[in-house]
Write a structure and sequence with these properties.
The protein has 106 residues and is an alpha+beta fold. The protein has one domain: Beta-grasp domain (Ubiquitin-like (UB roll), Roll). 17% of the residues lie in helices and 22% in strands. The protein has a five-stranded mixed β-sheet with strand order 2-1-5-3-4. Strand 1 and strand 2 form a beta hairpin.
Length: 106
């Protein structure tokens, strides 16, 4: 289990206990985190689960693979820490992860 903090665009924080093997997106949906739409259900076929990974966590979450990079081209306001939350698998190593939700999704 890992605790993930989602920070909505308005600054509201949502702390979630996430099971290992799930994704950051699945936990956002399960816990009704606002701003994560996940229209494709986690298939990496849209950019509606876009988040900004906090700088302190980018090494642990890894880099986006080619398919995710392609989908990020459709996301709103891409920044250096931009990731699709459906592509970040929860592990014990991510306990304390902080992600921010953009103003809107693509």
């Amino acid at each position: 289990m890992a605790k993930i903090t989602y920070i909505a665009h308005d600054g509201t924080a949502f702390e979630v206990e996430a099971e290992n093997g799930s994704t950051v997106m699945e936990n956002a949906i399960k816990n009704a985190v606002p701003g994560i739409e996940a229209e494709c259900g986690g298939a990496c076929a849209c950019a509606t689960c876009h988040v900004y990974v906090d700088d302190a966590w980018t090494a642990k979450t890894g880099e986006a693979e080619a398919m995710e990079e392609d989908m990020l081209d459709f996301a709103y306001d891409i920044q250096p820490g931009s990731r699709l939350s459906c592509q970040i698998k929860v592990t014990d190593e991510l306990d304390g992860l902080i992600v921010r939700v953009p103003e809107r999704q693509a």
